[in-house]
Design brief:
DNA binding, disordered C terminus, mainly alpha, about 130 residues, Lambda_DNA-bd_dom_sf, Cro/C1-type_HTH, two-stranded antiparallel sheet, 434 Repressor (Amino-terminal Domain), Helix-turn-helix transcriptional regulator
């Protein structure tokens, strides 16, 4: 497996967090420490070896300067467009690189304003009825 490959078992939200972490040149230990979880727990979640609790996901998002935002599916495109408009067109997904046709998750993450890279929403605008990434 090359250094940019994402493990097959990783959940889509953690795939995006992994890509964002790498784009920011952070180590798993850095994110785990900021999130208040063990490196092993973060590694298992990011690699898909474990199905982490929502609290682990939220802590990892906060450690990366992201805020989880739940939006109605029919407004996902508008929410993502708004995030990009307020962030110079940058979204977390565009910072992380192409998603490779990955499935969407049920939450959109927006920058909390404290991130150093200025990453925005976790996904690109999608059609009506699709879930934000």
């Amino acid at each position: 497996m090359n250094s940019t490959a994402v493990p097959r078992g990783a959940s889509e939200p953690f795939r995006q967090l992994r890509a964002l972490r790498r784009a920011r040149k952070l180590k798993q230990e850095d994110v785990a420490r900021k999130a208040g979880i063990s490196r092993e727990a973060y590694l298992r979640a990011e690699s898909g070896q474990a199905d982490p609790r929502m609290s682990t996901f939220l802590a990892a998002c906060e450690a990366l300067g992201l805020e989880v935002v739940l939006a109605p599916q029919h407004l996902a495109q508008d929410v993502n467009a708004f995030i990009a408009s307020r962030n110079g067109g940058v979204t977390a997904a565009s910072m992380a690189g192409p998603a490779g046709g990955a499935s969407a998750s049920s939450a959109s993450s927006a920058s909390s304003g404290g991130g150093t890279s200025g990453a925005g929403g976790m996904g690109t605008p999608q059609g009506e009825g699709q879930k934000p990434v």
